[in-house]
Fold each of these.
Amino acid sequence: MISGGFTCKSCGQEHDGIPFGYTMAAPVYWNPDLAARPGNMLAEEQCVIDNEHFFVRGRIVLPVRDADDDFEWGVWVSLSKANFVRMAEVFEGPARVQEPPYFGWLSVILPGYKPTTLDLKTNLHTQELGVRPLVELEPTDHPLAVEQREGITVARVQEFAEIALHQ
């Protein structure tokens, strides 16, 4: 979702719109060189490293208090092998929404946050077919967890856009 244009504080130029979401391409632990080795795989919704570390894609939704749309981070969460296998077993079935949340660790470094977002505790909530799981952060005082609970403003969304444009 994109709102109206904005004047960038970094470069002073007028930009056409503000994206209301960004996606991390892979878990922070992924390296493209891993793809050539057995036991490693990066797919659209899942990632495995050395047949030992298991990740799934999810969404962190931040309510935007002064807009009609929410902001979304597309992220990766690590799961235990047992939870990864269970999630894969039920992934294509409509009953997956009845699964309890899966515990995991946030496996991305999101720009614009200090301290780092890497390894924040999460619960991954499976959604209906065709919708990526929702990631619920442990309710701590980390800025991302606070923003998930309390929401953000369009000005904060613009900060994310400025980081993305000039990083």
Note: The CA atoms of residues 97 and 151 lie 25 Å apart.
Amino acid sequence: MAVRYAVTLHKGGVGKTTTSVNLSGVLAERGHRVLIIDCDSQGDLSSVFLDAHEQLPHTVADIFADTGMLTEDLIRPTAFPNIFVIPADRRLEQFEQTHNFKQEDLTRCLTDAIAEVEHRFDYVILDTATRPHLTGYAALVACDVAVIPLEAARFSFRSVQSIRSYVELENDARSLNPAMAIRYFLSKSKKNKVHDACREALTDILGPQALLRTEIPDSSAINTALHLRKPLVVHSKKSKPSEAYRTLINELQEVTRGQANHANPAAA
């Protein structure tokens, strides 16, 4: 069974797509087969890995529209070994409703779609949009771990209520996905007094277990790699941020191992 990460937060500019791209790069580097599902109608992740994704006849929108397409037929190879994508396009906009989405029958559609193909993959990464709506909620319902990047900057203090509201949304998703874990990490990190105060405040809000130790340093190499449409570990294999993403994967794997041991104590 594939491990499933949903990279998510209902705030723009924190690096969700960047995180999805770079986590997939680290996992592929280690020989794991990775399926990335773009759950954002803007298709930013799709544009990193695919040319002219808006012109493709079938995308993740077919899953939400229940067109009868097999998940297998939606998967596209990329230029990078072990990385595959189910792209998004503007047709997904019709499912980005912001009200009453928790009651929709479609909340489990990504769970069912992944179940069709997860025997082919070691990991599934779901990249979500910036607003709370059906497609992102379905990603939470489908995941093992919700992975949430937070920028270590002053705005994090102003976003405390937003973060708390998001935790509430994730807790709602647990009614359909009770085993889901929630983990946060600091992105675009700069070591200074503001950063230290921010981390301390977030630890108090989220709890020491929820906030991962790994921090992704602020680096132009990350943006350059994304501009070149490459995972960072392909563009700059030995850079400090590449090492940070590898460490982040190690921490996330610790979480999923803990989930497996909890579900099967005899295997621990």
Note: The beta strands are 3-7, 34-39, 76-77, 83-86, 123-128, 145-151, 181-189, 211-217.
